[in-house]
Design brief:
- This protein is α/β, with parallel strands linked by helices.
- It is built from 17 helices and 14 strands.
- It has 3 domains: 157 residues, Rossmann fold (3-Layer(aba) Sandwich), CATH 3.40.50.720; 127 residues, no CATH class; 195 residues, no CATH class.
- The strands form 4 sheets. The protein has an 8-stranded mixed β-sheet with strand order 3-4-2-1-5-6-8-7. It has a two-stranded antiparallel sheet with strand order 9-10. A two-stranded parallel ribbon has the order 11-14.
- β5, α10 and β6 form a beta-alpha-beta unit.
- The longest helix has 35 residues.
Length: 506
């Protein structure tokens, strides 16, 4: 149940001259620095573990069926169709029975018993159907019995191996989400106790953050240290990886909740509101659970789990294809740049990447070497004397952006995403992040070579706050509405937009 949905586009429209992002970085506490410097293990997303486990188990059941079918005469096509339908149907029901979760994989007898019962039930249904439609092409009864027995054996062996693997990953911390709690005092203490009781295998609790500095918010709660306030949490999340933020505040504290969310929504993390102290009781389906703790989903990390895998594959396939197809253009451009003006072919510039991490972004050099502006303190305008003859053409056609395909292959950029801006870029003499509140929310996903803003006409000069707001608003729309089909649409529309767009760079 979504208790509150923050509207990022509305937040952009409510821009102010100075946001919480622009304040001077706080003097981080030594404990906060120490925690941030701890090595962060790469986690294995539970959704991917369960998805792969389900596919593998279905494959084993299919292999058992195909193996037995080769020993019996009959309609091969019918056998194949039945085997596929039964295996997929069984795995669907096994998932519905809750046996494709990390918690289930950690058990032994329970997961084997429930999975075996479901498999037996599906085979029993197949037997009944075979009796009702007993024809020459029907499946032999000894085949059904053999498939059931081999399936049970496969389930036992597979589930024992799966349990061992999950327990190994648990011991290594690969299944633990790095978590912080916002709040303090007795509510936080009760929450920590509940987490330790039922969720210690999935939660790596890093610390507490609370804006209060009185007796209600001590420096340590249940042996978990307070690392700072909510604005410090934003800085902390950019020093180390955080997967989950659990807010320990009562639902009645609406003002505090909204203020906290307005600060934290720029981070690429899951945000959950704990309901462990709420006197309002909702139906079981209204909650999601962290261990035994009921929570409300306030914000989700965009593009996660399988979607992240799909986008990674999309980026690599498109980048490699584009490099092959456009290599003649890139080689010709490099030669033209060298003949037109002295200096290197490529230009590297620092830009903000995912979660505000700095990356070196590659471009074909379009400006004179002695007038390069690495910080983009002055925007390039029409007729800019700093731009070379070749530079004007490659900027107008966006050929200068093609070397960013290498950034995509390195994993620093995506093909589609919010365009990364230069660090010192300004609109109306204001740095971008000073001009628009929540500007850094664009960095909850990897930046891209092209994006929703670019195909909708917001490409080129962003010299006014209004233009910047439109670009940021479109970027946030993309993040909130991402799909693989949207990425494909943007890629296909980009060449068309380059021709139609009158707001081209110069």
């Amino acid at each position: 149940m979504k208790m509150y949905r923050f509207d990022p586009q509305q937040a952009v429209l409510n821009h102010v001259n100075k946001s919480a992002e622009t304040r001077a970085p706080s003097d981080l506490q030594s404990m906060m620095r120490e925690v941030a410097e701890r090595p962060a293990r790469t986690i294995v997303p539970p959704a991917i573990v369960s998805g792969v486990a389900q596919v593998v188990e279905a494959g084993l059941l299919m292999l058992a069926g195909f193996g037995f079918s080769l020993l019996h005469d009959g309609d091969r096509l019918l056998n194949v169709m039945v085997i596929l339908a039964v295996a997929i149907g069984a795995e669907t029901l096994i998932g519905k029975a809750g046996q494709h979760t990390i918690a289930a994989y950690r058990t032994l007898l329970q997961q084997i018993a429930v999975t075996g019962l479901v498999w037996s039930g599906v085979i029993a249904l197949l037997t009944v159907m075979n009796l009702l439609f007993d024809r020459d092409e029907s499946m032999a009864r000894d085949f059904i019995i053999g498939w059931w027995a081999l399936g049970i054996a496969a389930i036992i062996v597979y589930r024992v191996a799966l349990r061992a693997l999950v327990r190994h990953w648990t011991a290594e911390g690969k299944l633990k989400r790095r978590t912080v709690i916002v709040g303090g005092g007795q509510p936080a203490e009760q929450l920590i106790d509940l987490i330790r009781t039922g969720g210690t295998e999935d939660i790596d609790l890093l610390g507490l953050f609370d804006d209060r500095n009185d007796i209600r918010s001590p420096e340590s709660v249940a042996s978990v240290g307070k690392l700072g306030n909510v604005s410090d949490l934003i800085e902390f999340a950019r020093m180390t990886r955080i997967d989950l933020v659990i807010v320990s505040m009562p639902l009645s504290a609406e003002t505090r909740l909204l203020d906290m969310l307005k600060q934290l929504w720029v981070l690429p993390v899951d945000i959950r509101l704990s309901a462990h102290m709420s006197q309002l009781k909702f139906t079981h389906k209204a909650y999601s659970y962290i261990g035994n703790v009921p929570v409300f989903d306030m914000a989700d990390r965009p593009i996660s789990d399988w979607n992240l895998v799909f986008k990674w594959v999309f980026d690599k396939v498109v980048a490699l294809t584009a490099l092959i197809l456009l290599s003649p253009v890139m080689i010709g451009t490099a030669i033209a740049i060298k003949l037109d003006s002295p200096g290197p072919v490529l230009f590297r510039q620092k830009r903000h990447g995912f979660n505000n991490q700095l990356i070196d972004m590659y471009k074909f050099r379009s400006m004179r070497t002695d007038q390069l502006d690495h910080g983009a303190a002055k925007l390039v305008t029409k007729g800019d004397a700093r731009v070379t003859r070749v530079g004007r053409f490659i900027r107008k056609t966006s050929i200068d952006e093609l070397p960013q395909l290498f950034n995509v292959l390195k994993g620093e950029l995506s093909i589609v995403g919010p365009r990364p801006h230069a660090l010192q870029a300004k609109a109306n003499n204001q740095l971008y992040y000073e001009a628009v509140e929540g500007y850094f929310a664009r960095h909850r996903v990897k930046p891209g070579m092209t994006g929703w803003a670019q195909i909708n006409g917001w490409r080129g000069e962003t010299d006014t706050v209004d233009k910047l707001m439109q670009r940021v608003s479109h970027d946030l729309y993309y993040i909130e509405n991402w799909s693989l089909w949207l990425d494909l649409k943007i890629v296909l529309m980009t060449p068309i937009s380059l021709i139609k767009n009158r707001n081209n760079a110069f």
